[in-house]
Write a structure and sequence with these properties.
The protein has 276 residues and is of the alpha+beta class. Strand 10 and strand 11 form a beta hairpin. The strands form three sheets. Strands 5, 6, 7, 8 and 9 form a five-stranded antiparallel beta sheet that branches. A four-stranded antiparallel beta sheet has the order 1-2-3-4. It has a two-stranded antiparallel ribbon with strand order 10-11. It folds into two domains: 117 residues, GTP cyclohydrolase I, C-terminal domain/NADPH-dependent 7-cyano-7-deazaguanine reductase, N-terminal domain (GTP Cyclohydrolase I, domain 2), CATH 3.30.1130; 153 residues, Alpha-Beta Plaits. Helix 5 crosses helix 6 and helix 7 runs antiparallel to helix 8. The chain is built from eight helices and eleven strands. Helix content is 32%, strand content 29%.
Length: 276
């Protein structure tokens, strides 16, 4: 990914743990690396095809002046988030926030916090087999659409499917969606759980009836296994009701463990089941 760099932008602002820092203020020095595709701008000489580093510099200055935080970590985190939310074409940003002559009771030149944040692509499975099934699925989509740091890019059709696991229950309505998100995998999981709870989801029986089920299928090319979360979803390659709607919106997305596209996984599953 191409880079646009802003180095050592000086801003007078009021951030710090001590009360006098929030009143008197001091100089902060900001460096930013903006990750974006610059080829189109370079070929056309058209600024609208790139990111205006002058506007970004003024944005950083206003942000630091208009807010007050105790921690440099918070300054960096909030600024990175706002830049990513407000700047078209910005995929990732690396920020360094320096605080020269920080009041630590010792002679030092500067302290600094440096972070890198960016957009991620995730695929979410949706399911419901209780009550207003379509209403619950639409609720799940809309709640994510209105979640800060999430953008819903595609939603599949909702498909009627047979129950999986515990079979003595109503048929399901299933779908899939593609989102772009600033949330980490665990933050995204927490948000999905909140949305499920808002739909009165109760986790009483594994594979049992539910008003709304939201599962992370894929998150970039990440492979993650811990006590809370498995990415890719460990059962997705076995579930036609997951793969079929996923193929509608992302047929060529590749499973990072099995190294198969969604279309290939669906074809293999159907072949093993004797379906065409």
């Amino acid at each position: 990914m191409d880079q646009i760099q802003i180095k050592n932008l000086e801003v007078f602002a009021k951030h710090g743990v001590f009360p006098e820092e929030n009143v008197l203020g001091q100089k902060f020095v900001i460096s930013a690396t903006l990750y974006t595709a610059t080829r189109e701008a370079g070929k056309t000489d058209d600024l609208t095809k790139s990111i205006h580093y002058g506007e970004i510099s003024h944005f950083i200055k206003r942000f630091l002046e208009e807010h007050t935080y105790h921690l440099l970590e918070t300054v960096a985190e909030r600024l990175a988030e706002e830049l990513l939310l407000q700047t078209e074409r910005l995929e990732r940003v690396r920020l360094q926030v320096q605080k020269p002559w920080a009041p630590v009771g010792l002679h030092l030149k500067t302290v600094a916090v440096e972070i890198e944040r960016g957009w991620h692509t995730a695929y979410i499975a949706l399911g419901s087999n209780m009550g207003d099934k379509q209403g619950y699925l639409e609720m799940g989509v809309e709640n994510l659409r209105h979640t800060r740091g999430c953008r819903v890019e595609a939603v599949s059709d909702f498909l009627v499917t047979e129950p999986y696991g515990m079979v003595e229950q109503d048929k399901f309505l299933n779908g899939a969606m593609k989102i772009r998100t600033l949330l980490t995998p665990h933050e995204l999981l927490s948000r999905l759980n909140e949305i499920e709870q808002a739909a009165n989801r109760e986790r009483m029986i594994r594979w049992g009836p539910r008003t709304l089920d939201l599962d992370i299928l894929l998150y970039d090319d990440l492979i993650l296994d811990d006590e809370q979360l498995h990415i890719p979803h460990i059962e997705m390659q076995k579930r036609e009701f997951v793969l079929e709607p996923l193929c509608q919106i992302a047929p060529y997305v590749r499973h990072p463990v099995w190294n198969r596209t969604a279309l290939e996984l669906l074809a293999e599953l159907r072949e093993h089941a004797g379906k065409s």
